Amino acid sequence: MTAIEPSRRGRPRSQRTHEAILEATRSLLLEKGYPALTIDAVAARAGTARTTVYRRWATKGALVLEATAEHLAIGIVPDAGSTRTDLGVALRQLTATFSDRLAAIVMLAVIANLDEDPFMARTFRSEIVYPWRTSAAAALERGVARGDLPPDADIPFLLDVIVGTVFQRAVINAQSETDGLDEAILDLVLAR
Amino acid sequence: MTAIEPSRRGRPRSQRTHEAILEATRSLLLEKGYPALTIDAVAARAGTARTTVYRRWATKGALVLEATAEHLAIGIVPDAGSTRTDLGVALRQLTATFSDRLAAIVMLAVIANLDEDPFMARTFRSEIVYPWRTSAAAALERGVARGDLPPDADIPFLLDVIVGTVFQRAVINAQSETDGLDEAILDLVLAR
Amino acid sequence: MTAIEPSRRGRPRSQRTHEAILEATRSLLLEKGYPALTIDAVAARAGTARTTVYRRWATKGALVLEATAEHLAIGIVPDAGSTRTDLGVALRQLTATFSDRLAAIVMLAVIANLDEDPFMARTFRSEIVYPWRTSAAAALERGVARGDLPPDADIPFLLDVIVGTVFQRAVINAQSETDGLDEAILDLVLAR
Amino acid sequence: MTAIEPSRRGRPRSQRTHEAILEATRSLLLEKGYPALTIDAVAARAGTARTTVYRRWATKGALVLEATAEHLAIGIVPDAGSTRTDLGVALRQLTATFSDRLAAIVMLAVIANLDEDPFMARTFRSEIVYPWRTSAAAALERGVARGDLPPDADIPFLLDVIVGTVFQRAVINAQSETDGLDEAILDLVLAR
DNA sequence: ACTTAAGCGAGACGGTACGTCTCGTCTTAAC
DNA sequence: GTTAAGACGAGACGTACCGTCTCGCTTAAGT
Question: Which of A44, B15, B116, B169 is surrounded by the fewest CB atoms within 10 Å?
């Protein structure tokens, strides 16, 4: 998890304050971006003391990951029987998340601070990327078993094609309209 | 261009100092990463005054782009007669550049600071991305004319597949060994 | 007052630090003079951060006035019954203060920065000059009432003679030995 | 003198430039005061290069003294036969000079930078103060000889009374109306 | 007319100090 | 023991001037 665990004794932490800080973090991320986000500004907007923020989150990265957890959640690829259907869901999950402005800001922060803030990268990978990627790999393996994909299909490569293309379109090119992107990728990957 | 233009009049700028600053920038980028790169540290390592750096580059981004220009240069896709050959060159250009640690650091900085430092993004796009992408698009169009690609091929989409996949592998997954990646992408794009 | 008022809440200011800054200010004033006094040097000698100085004093002038308050204090002219005695006290107060090297440095700074730092001038006038001048004027008025001074004596003029002469001797000519000066001024002012 | 001597060979100095720099110095002194006067600003306003200023004057003080020489000139006390007349002239010289805003700014700069810029103080004393003070002392001595002043009159003291009082009024109190001041001082000094 | 030496403008240079911002830690009183 | 408040040491920011330096160009006087 991202937050620092509270003690069981003494005055309990205020839940209102908690949510206020997270909300302040989200709005400031949207307004200023990750590099210009300061703890000072978060505390000021949340109406709390700076110390309170530091007491609960060890780093800016941890705070941001918790504040945007719902925006980042990609989910898990279901097993609905059809390779094309399952991959279609997977792609819609990706495009939806990558098109979310807050999610895009955070993902860029994660990769831009790979060395600076390795905790953030690790958490992001294990909490968000790994579950989706594992279930998407399973969906592709089922496709191989069904013959929708050739027996020697390089599954990690295909996942990189899928994620990389969506990332390129939605985050780097910042194209909001992703109509047809999902179908085009499906055609490319499942062709043959 | 990135640097502040020198005047023709007055004492000329020291070329030694110029190169010392760029070299200091490169080494600090590798050691600390872009967000932690400070002008103070650059000047100190270069053995110059802080003011000298400010005199020549308006922003940290401009300095970094000039310091890493050779690392970022992707080049232009040649027209050698064969679609597969031309695209193969294009892919080797991409993987070579994206695997360069300095180039990766700077590209991440560019996209992470899209809003913060729009000058940096604009320069990177126009100097590096645009020329390559234009020539790569031409190569794909020649492929369509030759029948190596279907007549209705979505060329911008294919470029996003190519760039996105390489970016995902080389930069985000930071996989140094990219053996076979070029061939796999070629097979994927030209398959039919 | 001169310092920025501290808040009642939060961590209280360190008194040790406060005194260290004032002492550093005094010693640097004596060594370098007012124009060459820098906040950087004060903080360095006091062993604190530069920000701590800025947090407590808005301007160099405010810091210097507080650091030298005891040296600047002229006091108030007493009412002891005799015009000559009272004025003698007044003169000894003036010569004592004006002969203090630190006080002289600060007074010159005040008048040299009348336009630059009007706050400093205003504070100096209201805190130091005004109380003394008012009480000295009262002493002269008592002298008029007693017949030690002519009924039409121009009291502001006489005060300017007294202050101006002492200032000229002690500060501008920087004569340390002021023996006989007090008596000479008394003879001049009370002659008749 | 104050300026750096030019060489006899090579291109002669421009007289126009010289006067432009002095005029710029005067106007900036009036606008900003001595402490805030910068060589950069002088050169900019004079339309010359900074180097040109540095080539001609070694210090800011030397430049300022030359620029304001006419404003500072007090003159010499004449020998017109009457003690009261001569001293009256002396006082009018003083009040005229001390009431000149430019002269006041420079005199304050001189005494505020006694330690910082001893050259300025020395020059001011020898060029301006000494000649006047010597001739004023001679006038007082003639007064003693004539019996207008007691035989044991302390002439340096009386000069300090005169100068100090005028300085106090005109410079420190910055009273523009000095009507009657001359007569009052004359009465005080010559009384008896 | 040709040389030559200095003046001149322009601006680079290494510095120092400015006053501000943000960091993450700390110290207090209030609850 | 959490909280609000704010002090603290630290360090980077970007700017303003300092006084020196290095250029190419201009301007006379001496040849």
Answer: B15
